[in-house]
Amino acid sequence: MKKKKNTLTFIDLFCGIGGFRLALKGFGLKCVWANDTDKHCALTYEKNFGEEPDTRDIKKVLTENIPSHDVLCAGFPCQTFSISGKQRGFEDTRGTLFFDIARIAKYHQPKILFLENVRNFEKHDNDGTIKVVSKTLDEISYNAFYKVLNASHYGTPQSRERIYIVGFRKDLGVKEFHFPKPTYEPIKLKDVLLPNSKAKKYIIRRKDIKLRENPPKLKQDIFGNYPLCPIRVGTIGKGGQGERIYSEYGHAIALTAYGGGVASKTGAYLVGGTVRKLTPHECSQVMGFPKNFKIPVSDTQAYKQFGNSIVVPMLKKVFKEITKTLN
User: Fold this and answer.
1) Which CATH class is domain 189-297?
2) Which residues neighbour 143 within 8 Å (Cβ) at sequence distance 6 or greater?
3) pLDDT tens for each residue of 241-266
4) Has this prediction a pTM greater than 0.85?
């Protein structure tokens, strides 16, 4: 992969707000086509990258009309395979979007397939789903490798487990691939938070807030570091979804695009003695987006966009291993 800058190209399927694009930009790759049907995501994408993605239904886009490319990226829709979904997998029409990835890859034969999905994808349907994916990729001439990784173990203050699937075209001769080893960097949510004075509208004022005394995980190790995971310190109401309070010294829970509760989609956090949700900007930070990333949509849409997005530093770390393998 030792080529001059911008000689390698990629397409960004189900691009959302551009997580893959941000990650691969650092490696000198050029995006030649992006696609997503969500008009709100398209607006955010355009404001940050200066071009609007193709918003047509991918099933209606002719394969031959998609530009040729070296890398196919896709964080394909995951609700079908999620623990919180109905787990209908390939029986659901959204599940068949994977086969559009296969259709495009079979025709264009890019060197690399770089895919991401929810952690449950690996175990869905008693491993049947991942077996179908692996078999499909093998049939179209790709050696596929996959692994579930948690962003908390790689320098990002969010407990977000996702499966990463990497496919190498068989003629490249790649017989094994090693995913990045955890770095366990001592980062905490507090490191990326705004001061409460800039997050006043996200403060939760309820009489049924209950804080725990001496939470067991809220302890530093001999180096002064806190556990690299969410640390629960209280509840709101009955403590259901969106009603659990976590410490700013731990990590954020996984952001979600859906869900209820007073702190829906982000969880509640005890920040400087105040209980509040994360702001959309803070959501961008726990996903590893740049500080100057533009958010031109409503809070409702922003929470949905970041909840559906991909942790940018994780993509960078996995792609770095891809480049090592090819070199």
Assistant:
1) alpha beta
2) 137, 167, 168, 170, 174, 175
3) 999 999 999 999 999 998 899 999 99
4) yes
